[in-house]
Specification:
two-stranded antiparallel sheet, globular
């Protein structure tokens, strides 16, 4: 992957050198748009570089933010971005497949900028292909996860 400079926000930076998930308008818009308060526990599904989780931790000083990521390079980069932020004590990276994650109904807010593409011409880059397509996390799997871990009074914000 090419060398990318850190993307600098006002209060944090996001490194995106190794992850197939690059910052994009959808993720940044979701992080800015979604109401982060009064959630105590937030889950970011498919965190990529961690930008949405970071934005929500910044906007809600009381929230614990968990971030799920299955891709090893993306998870490592998100962990790095979390550790160098001012909210490292409230950000937790969980490297595992979202389809098998279960903690009981415990989240007040779940956010996700999931993969969009189904079928079509696959990218020759396996990492990019797995990140951009619904092979690992389609709409049904994402909805099933939300049903398992969202509190009855919770909210789900997703880019569709």
């Amino acid at each position: 992957m090419g060398a990318y400079k850190d993307f600098q926000f006002r209060q944090f930076a996001v490194r995106q050198e190794q992850s197939p998930a690059r910052l994009g308008t959808d993720g940044v818009t979701l992080g800015a748009w979604v109401q982060a308060n009064p959630a105590e526990r937030i889950l970011d599904v498919g965190t990529g570089t961690g930008v949405i989780a970071l934005m929500l931790a910044q906007r809600n000083p009381a929230a614990q933010v968990d971030a799920l990521e299955v891709h090893p390079a993306a998870a490592a980069e998100a962990r790095f971005n979390f550790e160098r932020s001012a909210w490292a004590d409230r950000l937790r990276l969980i490297q595992m497949d979202a389809r098998t994650y279960a903690v009981g109904a415990g989240y007040d807010l779940i956010v996700s900028n999931p993969p969009f593409f189904e079928g079509g011409t696959p990218s020759p880059d396996a990492d990019r292909r797995s990140w951009r397509t619904q092979d690992r996390l389609g709409p049904e799997s994402l909805a099933a996860l939300v049903a398992r871990v969202l509190r009855p009074s919770g909210r789900w914000a997703v880019v569709v």
